[in-house]
Design a protein that fits this description.
Belongs to the 'phage' integrase family. The chain is mostly helical. The chain is 53% helix and 4% strand.
């Protein structure tokens, strides 16, 4: 029996087929591949949490919980852009109702959390980039930071209140001095361990956002108090250094409690919304005024991407940061033994 010949499709037919598939959002691979079993939010979010750092999870977890509560049984390919936008508007409204001025930060974190989930889905080939609804939801534009360098007399008032009130003024003063001398972020202080102390060279190793690790000079006085604190409060060598008297490591709640208490004694602290990050602004502003941009950038732990090409040619180093710490605290630093302290420290925490 003769089998009739099958005519090959013409170029025009193939082009028409490609055009139709393109308009339908379908690829040729989609026609021959097995259907993808897209998981639900309840299945994916716990796995996403495991991939995040402590600080990132702390920022996003509220929004993860919301999505789990509302969309637990929904597949990741079901929500649409309008649904995400509607949820973002509810996040904004609730944030304003809880005291936020405009809710921008809450919406920004919500969008970041959603994108984090869908990025994980893309990596596992459950969602194609073209079908990712979170890519279509814009983050609100950031406004300039309202933070500024705290004047010396007000910084002295903050330290005085921390030293004279509360259930553990020794811990609170150590926290304030650590942040003032190093300009570290909260996550860096919370992650500090006794193994991160280079006692001989007066350096602390900071683990901060973006999985960055850097050595930061500190004064001999601060190093001595960190060592004493770790020993007296029984901090294991490779576990968190900052601890309560009972040996339990502190969390971010200690910071919230500290600034709430200071705000009760100093109303302007509560009105301005001052937090520990203001100390980073304060220290880096002082360093920039006295030692210039390159040293400030090194002091802050910023990378080349945040400073432009010029930073490649005007890099600073630990010796210059050590000199800045020596001037700021009025103490000699092992990295710059020739330094003769002749400038009075401006930092109230360095007294």
């Amino acid at each position: 029996m003769n089998v009739p010949a099958i005519n090959a499709p013409t170029a025009q037919t193939l082009e028409a087929a490609r055009l139709l598939l393109s308009q339908l959002g379908v690829s040729a691979a989609d026609l021959i591949s097995e259907p993808i079993d897209v998981p639900t939010f309840a299945v994916v979010i716990p796995d996403v949490r495991k991939t995040l750092s402590f600080g990132t999870l702390r920022t996003y977890n509220t929004h993860f919980n919301r999505i789990e509560n509302e969309w637990a049984d929904r597949r990741l390919d079901e929500p649409t852009k309008p649904e995400l936008v509607e949820m973002a508007e509810r996040v904004k409204s609730e944030s304003v109702a809880n005291g936020s001025r405009h809710g921008r930060g809450a919406v920004e974190n919500f969008v970041g959390a959603v994108r984090c989930i869908y990025r994980y889905a893309e990596d596992h080939c459950w969602i194609r980039p073209a079908d990712n609804p979170s890519r279509q939801v814009a983050k609100p534009s950031r406004r300039p930071s309202a933070r500024f360098a705290i004047p010396p007399h007000q910084l002295a008032d903050i330290v005085r209140v921390a030293a004279c009130t509360g259930d553990d003024p020794e811990l609170d003063c150590l926290i304030l001095r650590l942040h003032t001398e190093t300009a570290c972020r909260r996550g860096g202080a919370l992650a500090l361990t006794p193994s991160d102390l280079d006692v001989d060279q007066c350096l602390v190793r900071l683990h901060e956002k973006g999985e960055t690790v850097r050595w930061q000079p500190v004064s001999p006085t601060l190093m001595r108090h960190l060592v004493i604190h770790a020993r007296e409060r029984r901090a294991p060598h490779s576990e968190r250094l900052l601890r309560y008297r009972n040996g339990k490591p502190i969390t971010s709640r200690r910071y919230d409690h500290l600034w709430s208490r200071i705000g009760e004694e100093l109303p302007w602290v509560a009105v301005q919304g001052i937090t520990i990050h203001w100390l980073r602004h304060t220290t880096l502003t002082w360093v920039e005024r006295h030692f210039g941009f390159a040293v400030t950038r090194q002091f802050a732990g910023h990378d080349d991407k945040e400073a432009g090409t010029t930073a490649t040619y005007v890099k600073s180093n630990l010796l210059e940061v050590g000199a800045a710490v020596a001037v700021m605290t009025g103490e000699r630093h092992p990295l710059v033994p020739a330094y003769q302290p002749d400038v009075r420290a401006i930092s109230a925490c360095a007294r």
